[in-house]
Design goal:
alpha/beta, Quinone Oxidoreductase, Chain A, domain 1, Rossmann fold, 7-stranded mixed beta sheet, 15 strands
Length: 363
């Protein structure tokens, strides 16, 4: 009997292209999921380009929802046919870091639990494997659409982590530098966690509507505003309780420090690229010359079945709606086109949704 195959988007020669691959089978503690919707972000582009350690021919992708297709030995929390979502980080749940609550740093490796599309085949395919399924695979409530759940798997899990970890006070103030999908999720999280003033900071003018739809009270841009001065003015001269740095641009980091009040928190939700001896600058005066009681945190995404279930519950009960983030839709046979749009930073593109047409799209 001929082995069943599928089309998948793989890293190839510094780019990404569709290639035919075998349909995966589950090993013990794994499930295979039939995808109904997948997405991608700049991390997939970086992986294909070799910025992160992705081997040639690896299937890309770390954001997906679908139905459980097959179950390996030892899996007990989901059943075949169940509609599920998968966190973009898929840690083991057992190692020392996972047991300490640092599941993003699973195994002590550079990318920790972020293995899909990096150190193993990812999710930009009609079928994909998920390891440690009992820790990672989460049923989707009936009142949550595939598109909403898909936004939860990476965007909301990541963007909410930095604000949650900062422990902002009720009625506090937050500035989010960067209004990509992670920064926009941080804006929504700040509002959900009780911030009374949420400021979104963009690099360029325009595109205010999405920031406001996700919960920003004020949106500034570096082209037209002296951002730090205006943040201080909006906070009566003291700065924000929490500045989230979600741009991934090292030159923005000092502004986040400067915008943070005495006793506040700078929460880094970015990964910075550069050689191993690169540094981030801390402006000493804005740091209080080392005694300003400002703390810097840089949490990796908190994931796992339980946390993703909580994010889905927020969506289900109307507390959070990620639909404003969805700015483009493709079918899977157009996935290379979607990848180019992300790689080229197509204006207005925040989150592309890629759906499947069984019998046509790669099956």
């Amino acid at each position: 009997m001929t082995e069943p195959t599928m089309l998948a988007l793989v890293a190839r020669e510094g780019n990404a292209r569709l290639e035919r691959r075998p349909v995966p089978q589950p090993a013990p503690n794994e499930v295979v999921i039939r995808a109904t919707a997948v997405s991608m972000c700049s991390a997939d582009v970086a992986g294909a380009a070799g910025v992160s350690p992705v081997d040639e021919g690896t299937i890309l992708g770390h954001e997906a929802v679908g139905f459980v297709h097959a179950i390996g030995a030892g899996v007990s929390t989901v059943q075949v046919g169940q509609r599920v979502a998968v966190p973009s980080n898929s840690p083991c749940g057992y190692c020392e870091n996972c047991q300490r609550g640092l599941d993003g740093h699973c195994g002590g490796t550079d990318w920790g639990g972020y293995t899909a599309g990096v150190s193993r085949d990812g999710y930009l395919a009609p079928y994909f494997r998920v390891p440690n399924a009992d820790f990672n695979v989460t049923p989707i409530p009936s009142g949550v659409s595939d598109e909403q759940a898909l936004c939860a798997t990476d965007t909301l899990l990541s963007g909410t982590t930095g604000v949650e970890a900062a422990q902002i006070p009720m009625g506090g103030t937050v500035a989010v530098f960067g209004q990509g999908h992670i920064g926009l999720a941080a804006v929504a999280a700040a509002r959900l966690l009780g911030a009374a003033l949420v400021i979104g900071v963009r690099a360029r003018a325009g595109a205010l509507d999405v920031s406001r739809a996700m919960g920003a009270d004020l949106v500034l841009n570096a082209e037209e505003h002296e951002v730090v001065d205006e943040i201080r003015e909006a906070t009566r001269g003291v700065g924000v309780d929490c500045a989230v740095e979600a741009t991934g641009v090292a030159e923005v980091f000092p502004s986040a420090v400067a915008a943070t009040r005495t006793g506040g928190t700078v929460s880094v939700m970015s990964s910075y690229s550069g050689p191993a001896d690169s540094t981030l600058a801390i402006p000493l005066a804005d740091w209080g010359w080392g005694i300003g009681d400002k703390r810097i945190i840089n949490p990796m995404q908190k994931s796992g079945r339980s946390r993703l279930a909580r994010i889905l519950r927020l969506i289900e009960n109307g507390r959070l709606d990620p639909k404003p983030l969805i700015t483009a839709r493709y079918e899977f046979h157009q996935v290379e086109q979607a990848f180019r749009a992300v790689a080229e930073r197509k204006p207005g593109l925040i989150k592309p949704i890629i759906t499947f047409n069984p019998g046509h799209d790669g099956f």
